[in-house]
Write a structure and sequence with these properties.
230 residues; 2 domains; three-stranded antiparallel beta sheet; two-stranded antiparallel sheet; 17% strand
Length: 230
């Protein structure tokens, strides 16, 4: 892709996101769940026919995917890179001029999903803990991370399948700027695997109707340092 075509593509993407109803749809899909056009129409506060036109625009720009299941058609974000871009734009959109004072609802600020990985205070604490223990380290360039041998052994002992995460067709581990904390949480295949591990071990519980996660008493007993509870 040359510079001119990249600029044109960026302008089209920006235009697709810029409409308020479409941006509400995209933010709703950041919890990683697929939704019908009817559900997204309600979120965007538009008529069903208008929602269909908006979703066609988002699909054309490869921001969402459509999935057919039985009589229903569901829409979801096209991938984790779209979620990461939206999270970064939310940082820009909400950045104050003076001292940072978070206005995110407390439930979402404490712990939430960012597509398929953990965000919020707990997500940032997880990111920082993995680095502090020497399990994760930044690579020489960019925002990617590498798992140390000690980190691989430790996470495997907790039940995380490092090999499967490495084989995923996506970035393995990377920084994802958190829009409520303004600091990185862990994204990529490893971030997704850490969330699934936390759910399986009962350290976090996912709300069925939104992005919020709840840290459980079991997390405080078993792994307080991992989620900033110590």
């Amino acid at each position: 892709m040359d510079a001119t075509s990249a600029d044109t593509r960026l302008a089209r993407l920006a235009g697709a996101i810029a409409e308020p109803a479409r941006s509400r749809m995209l933010c709703c899909l950041m919890d990683g769940h697929a939704r019908t056009a009817t559900e997204l129409a309600a979120v965007a506060e538009v008529a069903a026919s208008t929602a269909s036109a908006h979703l066609a625009r988002l699909k054309e720009q490869r921001l969402v995917d459509a999935l057919a299941q039985g009589k229903h058609r569901y829409f979801r974000l096209a991938g984790p890179e779209v979620a990461a871009a939206l999270e970064s734009l939310l940082v820009v959109a909400g950045a104050p001029r003076g001292e940072f004072r978070p206005t995110t609802p407390s439930r979402l600020r404490a712990a939430r999903t960012c597509y398929d990985h953990m965000a919020g205070t707990a997500g940032v604490a997880l990111h920082d803990s993995l680095h502090a223990q020497g399990w994760l380290r930044a690579m020489a360039q960019g925002s990617d991370y590498e798992l140390t041998p000690e980190g691989a052994i430790a996470l495997e002992s907790l039940g995380l399948d490092v090999g499967t995460a490495r084989d995923a067709r996506r970035r393995f581990a990377c920084a994802c700027l958190d829009w409520s904390e303004r600091r990185p949480h862990l994204g990529g295949a490893l971030g997704a695997a850490c969330l699934q591990l936390s759910l399986r071990r009962g350290w976090v519980r996912q709300e069925l109707d939104g992005r919020a996660l709840t840290l459980t008493p079991k997390a405080e007993r078993e792994m307080p340092e991992l989620f900033g509870l110590a």
